[in-house]
Amino acid sequence: GGAPAEEPAAPVAEEPAAPAEEPAAPAEEPAAEEMMEAFKVAIIMPSSITDLAFSQSMFDALLAVQAEMGGEEAMEIVYSEGMFVVDDAAAAIRDYASEGYNLVIAHGSQYGSSLQEIAPDFPETSFAWGTTLNTFSDDGITNVFAYEANSQEGGYVNGVIAASLSEAGVIGVVGPIEAGDASLYVKGFVAGAEATNPDVVVNVNWIGSFSDVALASEAASTHVAAGADVLTGTAQMVVGAIGVAEENGALWFGTQSSQTSLAPDIVVANQVYDWSVVLDEILALIHEGTYGGEAYTITLANGGLVMDYNSGYTLPDDVKALADAAVAGIIDGSIVIPVE
Amino acid sequence: MTPELVIIGILTSGIRLATPYLYAAIGETFGQRSGVLNLGVDGQMLLGAFAGFYVAFTTGSLELGLLAAILVGAVMGLAMAFVTVNLQAEQGISGIGFYLFGLGMSELLFKMLLGTVETVKGFPSLHIPFLGDIPVLGEIFFQHNVMVYGAFLLVPVAWFVLNKTTLGLKIHSVGENPEAADSLGVSVARIRYFTIILGGILSGVAGASLSIALLNVFQQNMTSGLGFIAVALVYFGAWRPWGVLAGALLFSMVNSLQLWMQVLNIPIPTEIAIMLPYILTIVVLVITVSRVRSPSALTKPFDRGE
Amino acid sequence: MTENKLPSGHTRIDTLELRGITKRFPGVLANDNVNFEVRSGEVHALLGENGAGKSTLMKILYGLYDPSDGEVFLNGKKITIESPTDAINHGIGMIHQHFMLVETLTVAENVALGLPSSRGFLTDLDKVSQRILELAEIYGLKIDPDAYIWQLSVGQQQRVEIIKALYRGAALLILDEPTAVLTPQEVDEFFIIMRQMVADGHALIFISHKLHEIMDICDRVTVLRDGAKVGTKNVSDITKSELANWMVGREVIMTRDLDEINRGPSRLTLENLACDSDRGTPALRDVSLKIHSGEILGLAGISGNGQRELAEAITGLREVTKGKVILEDEDITHFAPGKITERMLSYIPEERMRDGMIKNFTIAENMVLREHHISPFAEKGFLMLKTIARHSDDLIDKFGVKTPSRETKAGSLSGGNIQKVVLAREISRKPRVIVAAQPTRGLDVGATEYVHAQLLEQRRDGTAILMISEDLDEIMAISDRIAVICEGEIMGIVPRYEATPEKLGLMMAGVVPEEN
Amino acid sequence: MRSRLDSLLDALLPVFATFAALGVGAIMLFILRVSPVEAYGALWEGAFGSTNAMAETLVKATPLLLVGLGICIAFRASVINIGGEGQMIIGGILATQIGLTFTDWPGWLVIFAAMVAGFLGGALWGGIPGFLKAYFRVNEILSTVMMNAIAVQVMNYMLRGPMIDPAQAEKASKIPQTARLLEAFRLPRWAPTRLHAGFLIAVVLAILVYILLWRTTLGYRIRAVGQNPHAARYGGIRVRRHIVTALLLSGAFAGLAGAIQVYGVNYRMITDGSASGFTGSAGFNGIVAALFGQLHPIGTIPASIFFGALLVGANKMQRVVQIPSALITALNGLVVIFVVSSEIWRRRRQRQRLSRDETDDAPPSIAENINTSKEEGSA
Ligand SMILES: Nc1ncnc2c1ncn2[C@@H]1O[C@H](COP(=O)(O)OP(=O)(O)OP(=O)(O)O)[C@@H](O)[C@H]1O
Ligand SMILES: Nc1ncnc2c1ncn2[C@@H]1O[C@H](COP(=O)(O)OP(=O)(O)OP(=O)(O)O)[C@@H](O)[C@H]1O
Ligand SMILES: [Mg+2]
Ligand SMILES: [Mg+2]
What domain of life does the UniProt record list for this protein's source (chain C) (predicted)? Predict the structure, then answer.
């Protein structure tokens, strides 16, 4: 068949993140000469490091890990942003690898094919990509890590809170295209909302673009006109929708990065991706000489997904309790989110 | 959901969505009427959007923001005029150059000066007394912000300038027969400078209408190709302000219709819904078979032939 | 009214003098140290072969071109003219060879263009219209200020050009081949206007290739040859044939006797032909004609009476709404133009630059425009470049096309040479029928002579020729029979020896001759 | 006789213009506190510094050249095809479908069929605006812009639905991509670089387009229609049909570019919801490349390589000196502006030459929209 065999159920990190000190520890262990060399990380991102969404979530995590490790002397970070052209990204990946970067992160599911091709040529370099769990180990490739986010989990929690807070019983969702991470988040959100209030109406609008801020905003207006008093959305173009929510006094739920700064009055909660959990583990493995083969999922359970509540918004205690219960249920497995 | 609600919704948001298209397309109409095709509208919009946003954000004054957008648009227009009028560069291609420049430069400035997405408090909705209180109509037409009204006001103004003033006469003649205009002492260069700079200004304002009136944020490539649609709408409108208005409204309302179709759970693939405005724009043009020629001198640099 | 004022209220120009004007274009010395003088109250003709540099000299005077060298003196005072605005301010107006009108604007709008308005930035078209009507009254120009230019006949458009100049206070008017596109009647009317203007104290510079017009209306004539001035003479001191010889530098045959008619069977038959104009109004109604092998059928008529549509209907370029076109025995009525071409029907279109040739193609490419797809010029979809080259060299040689090479862009040729290329292409095919529309429009006497000789040679070879012309002299010079068209209908057909200008003129005005 | 120096200067004019643009870029870099020397060193390095770099440049040039060839044809017919992006997408989709369907066919056959499918797909997407222009007078700028947007949605629909990778279909996070092409179906590569046979195909096609335009009756007709539709009709050419043909062919080359991107570079289609995610904006940049190449198929070859080098080198520059990618975009814009603006000097020099040498018939400027050059016409 034309399709490559998909990955087996790769071991997924189950425990919460390793203690923060651990990745920093290598400083003492390796030989002194090696220590002089900074660990070099390159990252290729589809959007920009400041998109308040998917790309920024990884870049922020890298900065956090860098700080943990002791700053630029310990870890050097270079990035290529705006690499939405797969072809250009492939050139960048190969280039970074041949420049001797220790870890090359291709932060987008579209970069898989390129990695599959390039990784075998650089066995000494470690690669990571997401969002997926495919490390290409079936193809005999051993130096690719994979990661993904269970964004449906935070979506579910957001949905629970949203349904509880919606007085109108109508909620609007703005998404880019119905696929990947965005699709997972929306499914989780709808499930959470419907589980909390079976009568709630969740209207979903896919606008067909990751960049059309104006249409995202108009989609939000449409939701408001259709009676929604709570909105959510995913991907970088939703910044336009948040303004509409604020103007109309609707509540907003964010995902990927914290969007509280955009509308401090109406953002209730964000599901924030904290990839440092994954990065820590990858760095530890690389340090041990394992360059790939592991796949990670950030979840509420392992702390990679964090529910970030806006301190400026007072969430009623009963609702907060519902949310906490949802988080607990997801972590202990009593809540299973249907995502097909 | 009642049908009235949906119809009001479609009309209201159609009017809002049409705003940036109107500014940009009316500006482009002036340029094309005088014989200059500007494909750089999207880039000019982005720079205008950024300038407007940044100044409004830092000074807290929306008026100053708007002024900044106007200035930046004017400077871009000036550069474009120099390149197409004096250097007689191929208009379509230099337009693409200006688009790329505006796209990159707006993002670069955004990165250097702001660093992250911020918001401003944009122009508030103006509830027009009396008119805004009329039940349905008031809601559709008279509860928008000032830049929306500005865009719609621009249409009759543009019509008036193009058809009732000596300037309009000159613009028309320069676009149709620059040799004739030149032989009567009309400065082809001066008129084209004027229309291209005006186009730049209106593109800048179109951008600002997004960043400080409708969306109140700036993000890289936030226009997402809107400027190219605006150019297409000039062709749709057959170089007439009222035609452009019709095109902008049609396109926007169908766009808002497709958003409603998704909300109403009409079972068609979302992609088909999203295609609708584009398909319908073409279909309408096919049905209403336009007999109007483009300005004869469009895209042709003027040179006395010496 | 003071001594030096014109009826239009503007100041007179007593003398205007060009001294030592030189103009170089890349590869061409268009004007070579030309001195020229014109006075108030005279019509001064400028005469010369195609490409002699007449238009260039006038464009310099009007500020459209910068001279490479030379000076301009107005009433004895040196002036500089750097733009048309300067020229207009000095009272100089110009009517160009190619009209400078914006077709999509009205007469009044065209006149008002570029002038300050009495209402500031608003147009004052009502006042402009009023003034147009006043001027029209003074000079006897009939014009509707609210008509769009595209609605007007060529003659009317010319009147708009004159009004434009008068409106701007022109005391000196440059008329670059104004009569080339006018009907005899229109020319007469135009001359009345010119005489009126001269009598009022205007100075006129008149360019024309028609010698009788120069004899008719001009006081003095200056001849240019290859950019240089040959001389200036009083028209009263010179005869028409002297003038022709002076200009061309050799003997010119002004009239020729036709050989015996060697008339064969009918080649082209039109039966009750009808078609519409571009605007959708009926242009031809019920036209029936037979054109025989070995004859030239002249079609006379005032421009805009269906001649153009008739030619296009025959050649397949225009949809026929009724009737038939029969080539020998074959009904070709609804054939595509290409198919008609293949049946050896040639067409010399009236607007050659627009319809008859592709400016940016080389001469060689233009030479095969009609047969680029047929053997020997193409085989299996490929162009046979060597054959095409040989063919073009052949024609360039045979027809004496003045060009550096066959690879020269056709657009850079002079009007006469362009005409030769079209003619060479159409005639060299050994056509069975030729439709020739205004074959000598804009050509100098030498070139005209040449074209007529070519057509007559075709006639001798048995080709059937339909020659459409608005120039009665031309029609009467080489047609065997003359048909007259008016408002899309044939008013009658008269043999050449029975035709008089008066008779044809009446028919052109729509009077059906009694004999028919 | 025209000196070699003159033609060399003409050919180098875009290069000088590029230097001027990079000079302005240097000021911007300076403001960003980046050493222009280092930055431009990286640019050169990225474009030509190694075998691999050169290969990357040619890989980038391939779709530019193919789209550019189509633009040459369209422009010669006086049709402006802004629909390259959409045509590439549709071509890519059809070609991919061939590879996914006929998995038991021999590789060469699938590749051939896929190229044909890409060609036809692009032709369809270009032919529709062509048809609408010729028979309904719908302006092609309007319709091609709209067709681009429609093509993106077609792609999103196909990759999310009927064409989705079966492996993705089973998973919760359905990445909108097709399955990968079998190894046997991939265009041969010049290992270890990514340079693939598509470049060769494009160069051969450039020569064929040259022949088409100046050696065949079809080319003659297309050019005639573009130069003067009235005279073309008089010459027996069916104007409308040839307008459609020109846009059809133009689209076909863009469609082929799409197919070659899939079979030579990506081996699958994947969407990020935008056109440029797949095309890398080659549908636009190809227009610029064609104009740099004086709208001449042969001239478009070096022009595409030049532009490809700039794009590839600029990416490298971003990586090395870590400047926002936005600067690169802005810089590309400047290069385009400077290069088209520099045309006027070429035209001026040409006029001066003309006054020296009457028989010269060098090509007029691109500003005059269409030109023909010395080697055109008869031999
Ligand atoms: N803009 C131009 N550029 C280059 N050459 C030109 C230009 N205008 C005229 N010429 C050349 O200058 C010469 C004189 O041209 P001009 O138009 O003055 O002739 P003319 O006497 O008016 O001829 P005609 O009777 O055909 O109108 C010709 O050889 C012509 O080709
Ligand atoms: N680009 C154009 N500019 C002006 N007129 C045009 C143009 N294209 C076509 N036309 C007009 O359209 C009409 C039809 O042209 P033509 O007969 O050449 O088309 P065609 O290719 O034969 O179409 P079909 O194959 O459907 O018969 C003519 O009146 C022609 O003048
Ligand atoms: Mg002349
Ligand atoms: Mg036809």
Answer: Bacteria
